[in-house]
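Following up on my earlier thread - several people asked me to post the actual chain instead of describing it. Fair enough. Here it is, all 176 residues.
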Amino acid sequence: MESLHRGEILSGTVTAIEPFGVFVALDDSPDHPVFPGVGVITISELSWRHIETASDVVQTGQRVSCEFLQFDTWNLEAKLSLRVMRPDPFHAFADRNAVGRKLHGQVTKLAPFGIFVQVADGIVGLVRLQELTWTPVEAPSDVVQVGDEVAVVVTEIDRERRRLVLSRRQASSDPR
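Reply from S.P.:
Thanks for posting it. Predicted structure:
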């Protein structure tokens, strides 16, 4: 296992689902001291989209092909990624959209510094507090609630960090 190189594709069977991710019994691999196989896919490496549990993506007994990331010499496990085997939906979104484009989406979360709006399947952007309305507000709940449909304008697309910044006020006319 230590001779593997980053980017190699490995196949195996999901043997256990844990809160932090899944164990994979890799084809032609030695046994793990606790779980069969020596592959681990953390929650963050299962899907490009936000998921609650690993079972949202895989099931015990399912065959998977993953990319090898690194060998963890402390735990004697191969760190794997399932998500990189699929196209990144953020990059596809960034290819189809540009700064200045008006979109519609649903508010998914309120935070003291702004709101999060889902503008496409698996694509969520941040509207900062000062970009919610033309007049200052103290809290996002003063103007929107989770589940509300809102119009927004794309103000920044950061492909490298996979971040989308939006403005709700730019999507409406200035009341002055």
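The chain has a mean pLDDT of 90. That should answer part of your original question.
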